[in-house]
Each structure stands twice: as C-alpha cells, then as structure tokens.
Amino acid sequence: MLADYIEINVPPSLYSYIVHTTGGDTIRLGKNGVLWAVIKQHLICYTRWSMEHNSQMQDPQAPRIRIELLRKNGAQVPNKNFTLNTSSRKYLSLEGNRIVVRLLISEFQKTFLDYMAGASMANPQLSIKDAINVFCDDYGLEFLSSYEMLKKRWYRYRQKESCFQNTLLNL
After folding, report:
1. pLDDT of residue 106
2. Half-sphere exposure (CA, 13 Å, Cβ side) for 50?
3. Is the full-model pTM beyond 0.85?
4. Across-strand partners of 149?
5. Among candidate residues 124, 125, 150, 123, the one with its CA nearest the CA of residue 137
6. Treating both helix axes as pointing N-terminal to C-terminal, what angle do 94-122 and 34-41 enclose, rounded to 10 degrees?
7. What letters, b where the CB count within 10 A reaches 16 and e where it falls short, cover 100-136?
8. pLDDT tens digits along 121-152
9. Are 108 and 64 in contact (CB under 8 A)?
10. CA dist., res. 86 & res. 70, Å (int)
C-alpha cells in the first residue's frame, strides 16, 4: 500500500533547505513531533470540487514539498464505545497549509540564526557576507537569491538582541 502525502507550496530557499537536510523533497514525520501535531489538527476531507478549487488557487510554478502522513486507522474517543475513522482525512486545509509553512520557515530561520551566532562567536573577524555564503554552501542554498533575505533577517535579529542587552543598565 502506498503512503499518503500532502503537498505544500514553499518559498524556493525553504525548498532548498528541506531538500538538503532531508535528502529529498519528502518529509517523514515522527509520531510525537510538533509538525505532526499541527498537521493532524488541520487534516480534512475534500470533495472533488474543493480539490479542484484549491488546486486553482495554488501557484503551479512554486516549489512543492511532500509530507508523508502517518497511518492512522481510527482514534478512540475516551469514555465512548466507538472509534472515529480518520483514514479519509488526507488533505490539509488552507489555514493548515499556512501554519505548516510558517512553522517550517520558523525552523529554517532558527537554524540560520543559530548558525550565524555560532560563526560570529567562533570567528569575530568573519564578515556577514562570508558567513552567509558559508551557510548557503552548507545548506545547499543559492547565494545570490538568498543573500538579501538572510542578511535582513540577521540584522533584525541583531537589532532586537541589542535592545535587550542594555536593559539592566537602564534600571
């Protein structure tokens, strides 16, 4: 039996990051993971009309990742004598799609910020451009298309950090 998948449009830099870290465009979930907990909250059943309507709203040029759904035949309801069949819930709602993409982007940004903080502490003379270039090489990103986005994210993070560093001196 083939595994069930959901497909999600993601930004190109996130697609490259996922392909590099997972070894392909498919994410396999863990049963106790945060991503699976979020996805199963937003799994729905679609009719043929809503599937066609949803596919028309998505950008066909955007890169797509696949997330493998865990097999789940039924969920028992506490203090009841029946189970709910969840095997037909194979589609992600539009709201769930946005939430999953935001969660994946958040993980990508967290990895980038941790990488940059480590690189700047290990080598204070390293320029931001060189550190971003090494990050792009390590995670399979295209430097020219990702540089401005990553540089802005790093500057925003440093600005936010500098606001909190002097709070004790102001008391």
Report:
1. 93
2. 8
3. no
4. none
5. 150
6. 160
7. bbeebeebbbeebbebbeebbeeeeeeebeebbbebb
8. 999 899 999 999 999 999 989 998 899 999 99
9. no
10. 11
Q: What is the pLDDT of residue 149?
A: 92
Interacting residues of 111 by C-beta distance below 8 A, sequence separation 6+: 17, 139
Distance (Å, whole) CA 44 – CA 88: 8
4: DSSP letter: P
Structure tokens at 61: 């040029």
Please check the confidence at residue 6 and state whether its pLDDT lies above 50: yes
Residues β-bridged to residue 64 = 9
Phi, psi (deg, nearest 5) at residue 91: -125, 150
Contact 58, 97 (CB under 8 A): no
Q: How far apart are CA 80 and CA 78, in angstroms?
A: 5
Read off the pLDDT of each residue in 56-74 and give the average, rounded to a whole number. Answer: 74
Q: Is the dihedral of CA 18, 23, 25, 28 positive or negative?
A: negative
Contact 158, 112 (CB under 8 A): no
The arithmetic mean of pLDDT across residues 28-33, rounded, is: 84
Q: Amino acid identity, residue 10?
A: V
